[in-house]
């Protein structure tokens, strides 16, 4: 049988994909991160489905549950917060499932940074201002970052940043970035995007940390830094330009 790693989205139950919802309703076993999965989302499970909260389980215990379900002939819905491709520990689980011969499939979901950008009402790739996005995190007690993946290295490019797992280190992070982007660079923080308690603050690198603290932001927050957040007067993209020959050119930027 198959383990489906399903992107559960950023929080709101209706932001799971139709494919993810349908698989959740079909699988007789569901493993979910209890601290990040809303009750409304679990309501999509079949009434008699086995539900396993992984919040207090080790990686080995989680893998054992997946292998056990497979050997019992059960498909498994393995819910991942946001999208499985980002900070989901899917790689570690897959590495253990493959030697056991357990088939698996990835089902994409709405990542937190995308939900947060939607809350801000901003496009993160604005013509002439910024066409790239770096998704990264802060280094603290978590797994060490690769040596080259430092905030300083990313900041040297001036690229728009989306920082996860950094809210409790926001003073250090914004102080470090201000030396490269300038204290007047636009910044924003979205906490609990799409969830009850959703909170948004907007400002610059000079004042965003103070605003985030005053708002009581402590978890599930994405920090954005970049000129695209307050862009104006930028050129239109070529995609919908009246000068483009649509008869001979494919739709592209």
From TrEMBL:
- Enzyme Commission code: 2.1.1.133
What pathway does the annotation place this protein in?
A: Cofactor biosynthesis; adenosylcobalamin biosynthesis
Q: What's this protein's name?
A: Precorrin-4 C(11)-methyltransferase
Q: Which gene encodes it?
A: cobM
Origin species, per record, is Amycolatopsis dendrobii
InterPro entries assigned: 4pyrrol_Mease, 4pyrrol_Methylase_sf, 4pyrrole_Mease_sub1, 4pyrrole_Mease_sub2, Cbl_synth_CobM/CibF, Siro_Cobalamin_biosynth, Uropor_MeTrfase_CS
Question: NCBIfam families from the xrefs?
Answer: cobM_cbiF
- Print the organism lineage: Bacteria, Bacillati, Actinomycetota, Actinomycetes, Pseudonocardiales
Pfam families registered for this protein in UniProt: TP_methylase
Q: Name one GO biological process term.
A: cobalamin biosynthetic process
């Amino acid at each position: 049988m198959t383990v489906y790693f399903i992107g559960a989205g950023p929080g709101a139950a209706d932001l799971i994909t139709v494919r993810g919802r349908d698989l959740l309703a079909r699988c007789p076993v569901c493993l979910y991160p209890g601290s990040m999965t809303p009750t409304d989302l679990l309501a999509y499970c079949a009434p008699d489905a086995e539900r396993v909260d992984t919040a207090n389980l080790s990686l080995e215990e989680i893998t054992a549950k997946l292998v056990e379900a497979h050997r019992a002939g059960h498909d498994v819905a393995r819910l991942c917060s946001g999208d499985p491709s980002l900070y989901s520990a899917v790689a570690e689980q897959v590495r253990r499932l493959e030697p056991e011969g357990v088939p698996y499939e990835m089902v994409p979901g709405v990542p937190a940074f995308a939900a947060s950008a939607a809350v801000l009402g901003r496009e993160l790739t604005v013509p002439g201002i910024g066409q790239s996005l770096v998704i990264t995190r802060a280094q603290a007690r978590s797994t060490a970052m690769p040596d080259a993946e430092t905030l300083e290295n990313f900041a040297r490019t001036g690229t728009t940043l989306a920082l996860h797992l950094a809210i409790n280190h926001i003073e250090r992070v914004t102080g470090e970035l201000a030396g490269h982007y300038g204290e007047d660079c636009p910044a924003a923080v979205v906490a609990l995007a799409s969830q009850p308690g959703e909170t948004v603050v907007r400002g610059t690198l000079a004042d965003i940390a103070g605003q985030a603290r005053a708002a009581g932001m402590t978890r599930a927050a994405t920090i954005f830094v970049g000129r695209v957040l307050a862009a104006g007067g930028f050129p239109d993209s070529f995609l919908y330009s009246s000068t483009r020959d649509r008869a001979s050119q494919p739709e592209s930027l």
